[in-house]
Predict the structure.
Amino acid sequence: MKKKPETVEEIEMANEKSRRRQEVRQRILATKVVEKGLLIVHTGNGKGKSTAAFGMVLRSLGHGYKVGIVQFIKGGWHSGERTALEKFGDQVMIRCLGEGFTWETKNVEQDMQKAQEAWQVAKDMMMDPQFHLILLDELNIALRYDLLSLSEVLTTLQARRPNLHMVITGRHAKPALMEAADLVTEMKIIKHPFRQQGVKAQAGIEF
């Protein structure tokens, strides 16, 4: 444990170090002047990818921005987030176009059709200047199973208007998508009650 400064000299030295750190931080912040729409990817095998994305959704709504959400896989999964966000009315548009997870449907043609429908909705949202942020939930899964063309998705994302933020979630993000992104976060599983303790998914925690 770091020793707490006690003498007048030690307190003055600690204050001086703090002042220098603040000066360095202010100089760094002064160089950060660019504003742009970010391409954000949440991936990895750990819990929290969509949860973190919905946190950004809520933050944008709190600032009065309009948000769009397209769920590619979880359409058959009723979530608390969806119920809560619907209370924001026209400020948020939520489209759930999947039929559940791919291992549940076992119908590749149906999955592909639903993914294409969801992608078209996403493209329509991207063309609407009212949207400040668009969440494409589980798009990574649709790309992993080749339900959509990766090259088309990348081209469309890169051609979006400059001030539009995009958040993409799901395991197994494609390397090309991560390369194109401005911000990539990998959620790593350390421990999960489903695996270690046989605890089922619970309302308010997983959905």
